[in-house]
């Protein structure tokens, strides 16, 4: 019996006993049932199975620690009230937002190589503005899953924005033979044309996530705008919008997208439009329902009696009271949009080669599955991880907006 | 009241309850003792936030979500310690030996089941009675509580009976297992004065008949004087004093209790109509109905003069708020018109000019829904000033500070806060401030004090009165509380079923002879005399209260004809 096996059981039993002694029921039950399961596993699978269990547990622990540390990091940031120095100084605030935007536009036009940094700065400023003690209070209620989700999203954002600096090879550079196995220059091996899989995954983060994000934002601008207007105006406008939404929703979404793409050709702009049209009705329905509950409030009546226009009503009175469910819905719709775009790419009508995209990467490497290789599963896993992470965060936000803050 | 056995039923000692807020446990109840004997009725009174309902729930061994009973508290019910009892032991008590009657019967009944099925749920669950027995017992209780058609009413759904009947049905339901203790949590607060009497009479009788002990929670002193044997006064989780009802009413010891008793003293001097002046607002022969619905207002006419307060009283459903909606332009009338200083006011608010809109402002009943929770106080008040007067920057800030001063709130403290950080009375003041910021001549006050405690309500009334004197405002004061009318009104309009049944100066309205409906309303207001209810019931007869009394008014009565003409 190897030293590892002895150590393994000793650790488990020690943890169970300590948990039982300090009356930590769940920990004890978890540790001791794992011990019992390990007895069976050890007999059936030998030290190998135990090693696998230990690695899984270690990974889980690592993930937990990363999530915990990340959450504490965010709380510390928020507690420093750094956001207030922006919100209390409008010139600084607008300066910090406008300068990066100008830089982004300029660098696109004049081909300066600073687009990535300007974009990162812009996102950083937006995050920092939200950092105040209120946010710190909210962050403390975040469960570990939400912290994990935020960490994953953060990692993807970094990978996407700084893709050219992170990726060791070019997006479409052929550097070895087809399906070459992983070596020191290729972390995940090569794809069907001999391009570096890891580099393409990093670029894919930019293309796939960027496209899905733009499409979701477009769907929200369309849907939420129409929903807020419908709830405020009511009457025939509400009816008209509702019926249009019904018509769009009655068309199967994938077929509609395929139709649009085959008519207008698979360009990025058409994909965004098609996806936005498909998802806008859902957003419309939710927004209309949420805003419908707000417009019956007395403060809306007071504002109407004051003679306020629709624009003010929506912007200052209704929207601030409907943001929580809309943000939660945004996360949810983002996942659906992402999966739809990946599905379109898989069918060959989405983002066109040689641009790296996770959906099409799955399709291009699909032949490898029959040889027992996991290469095509890596982009699929990237999609799954992001979807799960976003949903973790959304779950937390839904929980907060449903008013179940304290149990 | 029936003679009492001196056996202790409920004994609460050093009760401490904490609530979770802002990530710490803060005390809500700070050590309250309470002893209730069998068959005794104890009234718990205090402002909102005094912990009345929390104590009521604790008497069942129950702590609401986000609260906990601190260790060391003792709640002993008939020899059983509830703080250490298991959840299933406590559950076995609830419904069978301790029952609860909530403030809103409409919200407490399940709308999907018939009343009698909900009534028989507890006796069937505890296997005290068979279904048929339980139903017969329910009908018996309905009869004792003087519900109309006791054999049939239980087979209706909750929405098919009136609010007062539903509240009595709920009391009957609490009685279904003949509990030893019933907790009444503000059972009549949501009811009209006329309906309140029938519920009070019914509750008192049935508690007497079965010798049930009761905790009666309310903020209305006059009500508790009718119901309770002893009264306990609470303030912010502390007991102020406890004494028998007689003693408490005649001889309160603590200053706080005295201040509660003194609340109804405020009365503004009566103003009279200026001679030969055009009325500020003149409602002329207005009929109104909601789309497709029946007529809500029927030939309503009255005048409001500058600088005067006109109180509109009546039961719920009498068309008071609808009249306000017609004046503000939210509901264009189907017939008749509204004149402002002699000129017609456009019937729809959308076709009124900015200046016409600013003249007529509204203050709402529920400050919670009347103030946008996501907007800072500075903007809530600043927006009308900015919108109508075009103030900006420092001018705007000065104006907001000025208005905050006017409503007696410290500008530096409130300028940057959100409505949720304010107390009920402060919120209502912000509502007033928003109306003032428009610099109106006329304000509609829709039940502005009915959601507030008496002390706070009085503060609001005094404020409104002071503002009226300073700014020469006219108020249309919608209320169902006649004490409020007495303290602030100059003229009174009584409405019943969408018609104005009587109107005139306050002094005339409070001196007989009255229209029979006014008479009914006036005599239904509880007084601080503990024998008031008994006397009233003797005068009117037990079957002639509430809906029955209103229905009995003869439309051909000469007085009725006279006031309508």
From TrEMBL, chain A:
<keyword id="KW-1133">Transmembrane helix</keyword>
<keyword id="KW-0472">Membrane</keyword>
<feature type="transmembrane region" description="Helical">
    <location>
        <begin position="52"/>
        <end position="70"/>
    </location>
</feature>
<keyword id="KW-1003">Cell membrane</keyword>
<feature type="transmembrane region" description="Helical">
    <location>
        <begin position="145"/>
        <end position="166"/>
    </location>
</feature>
<feature type="transmembrane region" description="Helical">
    <location>
        <begin position="6"/>
        <end position="22"/>
    </location>
</feature>
<comment type="similarity">
    <text>Belongs to the binding-protein-dependent transport system permease family.</text>
</comment>
<dbReference type="InterPro" id="IPR050366">
    <property type="entry name" value="BP-dependent_transpt_permease"/>
</dbReference>
<protein>
    <submittedName>
        <fullName>ABC transporter permease</fullName>
    </submittedName>
</protein>
<feature type="transmembrane region" description="Helical">
    <location>
        <begin position="91"/>
        <end position="110"/>
    </location>
</feature>
<feature type="domain" description="ABC transmembrane type-1">
    <location>
        <begin position="205"/>
        <end position="398"/>
    </location>
</feature>
<feature type="transmembrane region" description="Helical">
    <location>
        <begin position="116"/>
        <end position="133"/>
    </location>
</feature>
<keyword id="KW-0813">Transport</keyword>
<feature type="transmembrane region" description="Helical">
    <location>
        <begin position="377"/>
        <end position="399"/>
    </location>
</feature>
<feature type="transmembrane region" description="Helical">
    <location>
        <begin position="27"/>
        <end position="46"/>
    </location>
</feature>
<feature type="transmembrane region" description="Helical">
    <location>
        <begin position="326"/>
        <end position="351"/>
    </location>
</feature>
<dbReference type="Pfam" id="PF00528">
    <property type="entry name" value="BPD_transp_1"/>
</dbReference>
<dbReference type="InterPro" id="IPR035906">
    <property type="entry name" value="MetI-like_sf"/>
</dbReference>
<feature type="transmembrane region" description="Helical">
    <location>
        <begin position="211"/>
        <end position="231"/>
    </location>
</feature>
<dbReference type="InterPro" id="IPR000515">
    <property type="entry name" value="MetI-like"/>
</dbReference>
<feature type="transmembrane region" description="Helical">
    <location>
        <begin position="251"/>
        <end position="279"/>
    </location>
</feature>
<keyword id="KW-0812">Transmembrane</keyword>
